[in-house]
Structure formats: C-alpha cells, structure tokens
C-alpha cells in the first residue's frame, strides 16, 4: 500500500507542483495572467497523470484522436465563424479575426515543416526552430487564457459590492447598443440582488461620432429601469478600458476614504482583461460578465488575447534571446579563440 501511494505521488507530483503554485498565486491575486499558465499546466499534468496511473486505454485513445484533429477542427470552426460574423455584423478587420487566426494556424503547421524540408540552409532551419517555439508559446498561452478566463468567470461572487462600474460599449444615436444594454441589465440585476445597496457607476466618454457620452446614455437607461439618481455616479471622460478604471477610481477615492469593493460589469469575453487592468490600477473587486452572442465570442476573445499579449510580451523576448544566444555561441567561441589563442 505504501509503495502504491509513493508511486501515485511520483506520477501526480508535476500536477501537484503546478497546483500548489497556482493556489499560492491565486490566493495572492486571482487577476493575473500567470495564473492562467499555472492553472493550465496543472490540468495538463493532472490529465496525463490520470492516463498513466490508471492505464485507461480510453484516455490514450482520446488523446491520440484529439491531438492531431484539434488543429483541423479549430481551423474549420474559425473559418465558419468568420463567415457567420461577417454576414451578421458586416466586413471589418475585427470581424475577420477568426479567419486570420485560422490562416496563422495553417501557415504555422504547414509552413515550418515545408521550410525545413525544402532547405538545407542553417539560417532557415534556425529561424524555423525559433518560429516553432514562439508559435507553441502563442497557442499554449491562448488556450490557457481561454480556459482560465472561463474558470474565473464562473467563480462564485457572494461578496457585497459598494460600487458597480459599468463599462461602455458604444451607442446608436442616444441609445445604448444591444451589447451595452446587456451590461447595464447585468449591473441592475447585481444591484437588486444585494438589496439596491451599491452605487452604479456608468463609465464611458463621448466619442467623436456620438451625440452624448456613453455614461449619460447609460444613466438614462438606468433611470428608466427604476434606479434612483442618488444611486448613480457618472464617469463620462474615459475612452478605453484602462481609462474607465483609472477615472472611476479617481471618482471613488475622492468620494470615499475608507476601503471599498467594486464589481466591474462588462461582457463575458472582456471580464478577465478588465479584472487584470483593475488589479494594475489598485481597484479591489471582481469582474462580472454579461452574456455575449455565441457567434461573436471567438472574434471578441481573439481581440482580448491580442490586447493581453501586448501587455505580456516578455516570454517572446526571452525565447528570442535564448535562441539568439544559441545561434551566436559558436561564433563567440571562435572569436574568443582568436583573441585569446593561449587561453
């Protein structure tokens, strides 16, 4: 029995390691990008350990089918999704993102082996190796963020919030768009669920093509839903998610000197990035998501991933520096041999 326990611990030790690291990081701050990496590694090693420990042929068969077919299924899904989004929302760069993402996957999967097979050049082989590793990190972090953002959105939110910040999402004339109405309705639902206790903070400035600010349009919508004016605090200067949070924090800090807690209400695909930015500016609270149309979610999430990747570029730099060091090492050794022949 003892030997069986030791064997199980050895098999599951990688999953336990990443699980402990994730629990420690999550306890310190749930709204971190690295939590997605730790969480996903924990899941991968736990699944692998289950397959090895139980020797369940079904798990091996499932993995054997999933690994080669997952890219094909993903590419087909993204291309179909891009076609659906363009039909419903019109042609734009953001709406063709799923299609572009599918082409990147195809180019990466096919292009690197073709380049390696057709060239004996060390430069081509070396660059192909770099692109292979960068691509692996890119797709790994994409799936990790997708999985963790889903997990984060489904965590229980039983806290009592002092303020409910509603993030803007565009207007049609003086009326909130359907996407924005979904956010406002979610905020009102949360406000009522805690006994109409919190102050609602509509956040969004006036765009160059807008008649009024998003905050003002949201305030009117809230009033029509029965929210009294003394429960509404407008933030009507911001134009980005980060500004939403910074300007709202300035308003709340000026209003209240004691500690307070916020809910950041936005669309479900946008929850984790909003919570990530809120952590950066020092706002305590949780992201709450309103439902997004299923066909639009992939497009929106790819946008979110690109924005978060721009904030977390360091892994790409580290990978490139390690690659550069490995490429230059022989030349540096040769140069040192010339400069110090007797050493």
Describe the main β-sheet briefly: 4 strands, parallel
Secondary-structure content class = alpha/beta
What share of the residues lie within helices?
Answer: 55-70%
Unreliable sequence segments: none
**What form results from the Cα inertia axes?**
globular
Give the C-alpha Rg: 25 Å
Number of helices: 11
Compressed to H and E, one letter per element, the order equals: HHHHHEEEHEHHEHEHH
What is the topology, as strand order, of the major beta sheet? 4-1-5-6
Number of strands: 6
Overall mean pLDDT:
86
Note the beta-strand portion: 5-15%
For the record, the count of structural domains works out to 2
Termini separation comes to: 58 Å
Précis, in short:
This protein is α/β, with parallel strands linked by helices.
Describe this structure in words.
This protein has 343 residues and is an alpha/beta fold. The protein folds into 2 domains: 152 residues, no CATH class; 131 residues, 3-Layer(aba) Sandwich (Rossmann fold). It is 67% helix and 8% strand. The chain has 11 helices and 6 strands. The strands form 2 sheets. It has a 4-stranded parallel sheet with strand order 4-1-5-6. A two-stranded antiparallel sheet has the order 2-3. Strand 2 and strand 3 form a beta hairpin. The longest helix has 33 residues. The termini are far apart. The mean pLDDT is 86.
Provide tags for this entry.
343 residues, alpha/beta, 2 domains, 6 strands
List the helices and strands and how they pair.
Blueprint: H1 2-28, H2 33-54, H3 57-89, H4 97-118, H5 122-153, E1 163-167, E2 171-172, E3 175-176, H6 178-193, E4 199-203, H7 214-224, H8 241-255, E5 262-267, H9 271-281, E6 285-290, H10 297-311, H11 314-339
Parallel strand pairs: 1-4, 1-5, 5-6
Antiparallel strand pairs: 2-3
